[in-house]
Amino acid sequence: MSSPAIGILGTGAYSPAKVLTNHELARMVETTDEWIVSRTGIRERRIAGKTETTSSMAAAAARAALADAGVTPEQVDLIILATLTPDQPMPATACLVQHLLGVPPRAACFDLNAACSGFLYALDTAWAMLASGRYRHALVIGAEKLSTIVDWTDRSTCVLFGDGAGAAVLGPTRGTAQILGARLYAEGAHAGLLCVPRGPKPFIQMKGREVFKNAVREMEDAVRDILEQHGLAASQIACVIPHQANLRIIEALGKYLGLPPERFAVSLDRHGNTSAASIPLALDEARRSGRVRAGDLTLLVAFGAGLTYGSALVRW
Ligand code: UT7
């Protein structure tokens, strides 16, 4: 029996209402709007309110994705939530999202942590489970409340991150929005470059320059691998949806691949780095703004703590 074709039937996103601008940050730590914009491309980020949680943001993004796909909660039999900021260590936040959405008990629900590559790890996992024929409709969600693990006195990290959620509904397709390939990687030797240690200060710690260099190299490798696997040239990709960490990383990737900046979807100027939420947020924005059109080849590419990285190819 050949595997059924699996596609992205719909996407959705959720961003908290509260905006934190660079100018406001400049009143909190020693930094300037000019430094943040020129080094990262970030102008503002969204910060979750007290009552907003990873599960509530995930559920809001998932509802939008279900509406976009025309799929009901009753039809969902798999929820994979990529996050490094679950509501609690247990139960899995995916189970809380299941309850919020009214997805029936016969669904499998679990969280997955691959940091900023989480959405692609979840996408590939869901794709494999759906392709097995044993599940039919999956919610793949990236959601983060990073504001709870940011050290707001550390200017080298606090200017980078934001909160939010993005989601995709995966299911059988007759050819549109088909997932053609995905490939995941990890380099545990570099685990110490980006981490949240246990102890009295459980905040994001990062060796920024090293992460930057590895990020560009890893994303370029991931893109070249998947293009080679599918016999494609970079020029055939209509739109790249990269992890949204730093505009200079995206620009460097474009330079190495020989792709102009217009081929890259960018949302970090308004959201900052939302880790596992960044790719589905950017993807939803790209689809809704008409940036991704029927028949287009789209390449999703991520890197993050682990160091994890990966890519996926979708024909719309
Ligand atoms: O999802 C994965 C998450 N991580 C990333 O993607 C991060 C990858 N790395 C980066 O994006 C960049 O390395 C940063 C944006 C974090 C930093 O940019 P950089 O160009 O690598 O700067 P740097 O760390 O080498 O710091 C340059 C200077 C330093 O001052 P000195 O030592 O040259 O006097 C820093 O202290 O900039 C200073 N600096 C700041 N100045 C103003 C660091 N943060 C700030 C700040 N405002 N917010």
What does it look like?
The chain is α/β, with parallel strands linked by helices and 316 residues long. It has 2 domains: 6-172, Peroxisomal Thiolase, Chain A, domain 1; 178-315, 3-Layer(aba) Sandwich (Peroxisomal Thiolase, Chain A, domain 1), CATH 3.40.47. Helix content is 33%, strand content 24%. It has 10 helices and 13 strands. The protein has helices at 22-25, 33-40, 54-69, 93-101, 118-131, 155-158, 208-229, 247-257, 268-271, 278-288; strands at residues 6-14, 19-21, 44-46, 78-82, 108-112, 138-145, 163-172, 178-186, 194-195, 205-206, 239-242, 297-304, 308-315. The strands form 4 sheets. A 5-stranded mixed β-sheet has the order 1-7-6-4-5, with helices on both faces. A 4-stranded mixed β-sheet has the order 8-13-12-11, sandwiched between helices. The chain has a two-stranded antiparallel sheet with strand order 2-3. Helix 3 (54-69) crosses helix 4 (93-101) and helix 7 (208-229) runs parallel beside helix 8. The longest helix is centred in the C-terminal third of the chain and has 22 residues, at 208-229. The model has no long low-confidence stretch (mean pLDDT 97). Oxa(dethia)-CoA is lined by residues 31, 35-36, 39-40, 116, 155-156, 159, 194, 206, 208-209, 211-212, 215, 245-246, 273, 304.
